[in-house]
Specification:
homodimer, 449 residues, Rossmann fold, 8-stranded mixed β-sheet, 5-stranded mixed β-sheet, 16 helices
Chain lengths: 449, 449
């Protein structure tokens, strides 16, 4: 026994959290759905280490990422750091293995990343990323497939209505070229990206102050970004706005193809739109850009974002690896599902609870549970012989759908009680050697397993 | 473009590794199987942070673990460390949340852990653990269930024949008490644990040198540990060896109950045995002990080990939390499955590959793939228009089972070729609007989805 004053306070680090069963079940469910969608398009899973050489990670995500990185010297004197996203590790991975992998290469990667962020914004310092990317092709079909995967993800996750906002960085470039703002496009687009967050006046202010645009130019950019309506009319309005700019015309062509393909494969038109205001500040996007918003919770921001980049792994290899991909915001989605009341209130993955209170009958209970598992049910047997009340409370609290109740009378009479824990109703069933009646009743209560 | 001399060599840290698709598919498959077994017994998933306060982790796994731990000072000046197993975090987690969780509490936890081990022994510094535990009950049913879960895991994973070796720490204590070795049981059992690795003479030597036993006593321990045969005869021989020792008799009773239950629920007798030589040196085991060996690869050591402990979280709470659990050696099992040739040679999770080489037909290809996905198939569409040869090579290399081939002639004639990539045989099929013939052929080739 440890004495009280030797005891250590059990606590997690600031910005870190435990997943208790209810939250973890929801997370596992979300990941399983994402995985099945990725696999249905032929994306393959990979994994990379949590720790990398510091030089691999620094300077790639900008100053902010560098500051937030967990880095230290390991016991062998190496400068190491914990990954802060899954994109830089993908770049390193691709540079290292592309010969073996072959091109094009499609991968998904689901795993934790770490950032020593300011936790006041409700952000965590450890969170899961869930990325998919197609590397080694510039074909527009990869743009379309990215949109289709996002569509299928959101549909499968069942977080209500959603809309994929699409843009093309080259269209933005074309518009800026016509406004004579090409030189300062990066700071201009960074400012534009904040539109939803800080409003038009502050965006104009930042474009003038930081990017060096005139106020007239800045207002013009905002006007262009506000072009709205259905995809066809936006595409129509865009033609003159980018005309004459080679990049702008190329971007418009790609955006037009993307929209045509989505329409051709019957994606509902309300599920996607062209949104010229999304720029995704990150300098490396060079083509299609995606963000995804939930109709019921637009305020939480994009739940699936990404885009096309020209040269993923330039820092590590001379081989040019263009690609496109997006990242599903697992933690944000989980929070959203919870807020929308779409997370099941249960802390057990199993549906069937078997009570235990006949003395000396453990093997009978074990046999019963084994037979139910072989019939496809997930079953918990209460591990102790106790009164019925506390056992049912245990089952109820965990969200079991039903309880199979057997005491001495039931064993002797070859019968059992099946209690529906939602309605509170019980049903007496005969207990034949093949458990036919019980299995049938469970199937009708729980649906086919 | 990054110039050559600015480029960073893409590499992983010593002792760390990337998972390429083939290995990762095998790992995902193994984890999915483990998860389904855990869930079928009502174990719930949890997760804990990779980083903990250093004080939570140090001194719990012994000197060796402390030395191997990755620890550092974070940006906020906190002493932090990366978890080196999932047991200490479980202890901290249970102490912190048991009120909310309720007892008994059954959890599984699958995640990476980090140890700066000597990599020369072929060990990795980052590896996955896959644990399950039942906390808050001393009932023998939890012992039985632990054995049953191990059994179901190994059966589901399909790594060939296996045997669960079982012992009870109290039986060992009883035998040592009769030999007057109770005072030095920990170093004696630590030495005994090495029997398979270093042989009897060195074990005797260590018992004498380190534990302070006489050579006669040490030889006697080895003789006891060698008691073999079927479970019934071992249990019979044990009675006199522990008789008179209260703890020994209690251990024998528990071991007997365990064996009786396994027999009663028809676990094949060759799947388990009593092995008095396994002690699992760790001081904290206090009852049942389990190790599991593959018949085809006994040399790789135990692939699933665990046991019963009295007081998991004593360092963090005054509440006594007895429990029992085991850990599935995922990495060891993956290596074993590979060595046994039971890992599929493929690097794609999808089965159906669709070639693409008719110009201007992208939407037709996309529609076809969408329809096949809705019919339940996982489908990759080659992202570029290319000659057939390189596309089929791409599909072959990744282990696709079949390819659907459509060129201009096929589109015009409303037909397609289905090529079996294993046999090389092709079949021409009509392409009706509901894809009936193609779906039927795919079903018969791939089995029902």
């Amino acid at each position: 026994m440890t004495s009280k004053d030797k005891r250590i306070q059990p606590r997690t680090l600031k910005g870190f959290r435990d997943y208790l069963p209810q939250a973890m079940l929801a997370r596992e469910d979300l990941i399983a759905k994402a995985r099945s969608v990725y696999r249905s398009y032929g994306f393959s899973p990979i994994d990379t280490p949590a720790l990398e050489y510091e030089e691999i990670l620094t300077g790639k995500g900008g100053e902010e990422s560098d500051k937030q990185m967990y880095r230290f010297t390991d016991n062998g004197g190496r400068q190491v750091a914990m990954r802060f996203d899954l994109t830089i590790p993908l770049a390193r991975f691709a540079a290292q293995h592309i010969g073996e992998l072959g091109k094009p290469f499609k991968r998904y990667h689901i795993g934790p990343v770490w950032r020593g962020e300011n936790t006041q914004r409700g952000r965590y310092r450890e969170f899961m990323q869930c990325d998919f990317d197609t590397i080694g092709t510039e074909d527009v079909s990869a743009d379309v497939e990215t949109a289709l995967v996002i569509h299928d993800l959101l549909q499968t996750i069942d977080a209500g209505e959603f809309q994929i906002h699409m843009n093309n960085r080259l269209v933005l470039t074309g518009m800026l070229e016509r406004l004579d703002l090409l030189e300062c496009q990066v700071p201009v687009l960074r400012a534009l990206d904040k539109l939803a967050k800080i409003g038009p006046d502050k965006v104009v202010d930042e474009m003038v102050r930081v990017a060096g645009a005139s106020e007239t130019q800045a207002r013009e950019v905002l006007k262009l970004a506000a072009v709205g309506g259905d995809c066809e009319s936006v595409l129509g309005e865009l033609a003159p706005l980018v005309g004459g700019s080679e990049q702008g015309e190329r971007g418009l062509e790609r955006l037009t193809q993307l929209v045509e393909c989505l329409r051709a494969v019957d994606i509902a038109p309300e599920r996607y739109s062209i949104d010229l205001s999304i720029a995704r500040g990150l300098d490396y996007y060079t083509g299609a850009i995606f963000e995804t918003f939930l109709a019921d919770l637009p305020g939480i921001g994009s739940v699936c974002s990404g885009g096309r980049y020209d040269d993923l792994a330039a820092l590590y290899t001379k081989e040019q690896l263009p690609g496109i991909g997006a990242s599903l915001g697992l933690d944000r989605l989980l929070a959203a599902l919870e807020e929308l009341g779409r997370v099941e209130v249960r802390s057990t993955p199993a549906n069937v609870f078997v009570t235990r209170f006949s003395k000396g009958r453990l093997t009978d209970y074990l046999e019963l549970c084994g037979a139910l598992r072989r019939a496809g049910f997930d079953v918990e047997l209460y591990p102790e012989e106790r009164k019925l009340g506390p056992q049912l409370k245990h089952a109820d609290r965990r969200g079991y759908r039903c309880a199979v109740i057997l005491g001495d009378d039931e064993w002797t009479g070859s019968k059992c009680l099946l209690k529906d824990l939602q309605t509170g109703k019980s049903e007496e069933l005969a207990l034949s050697s093949d458990l036919g009646a019980l299995i049938e009743a469970l199937n009708s209560l729980l649906g086919p397993t």
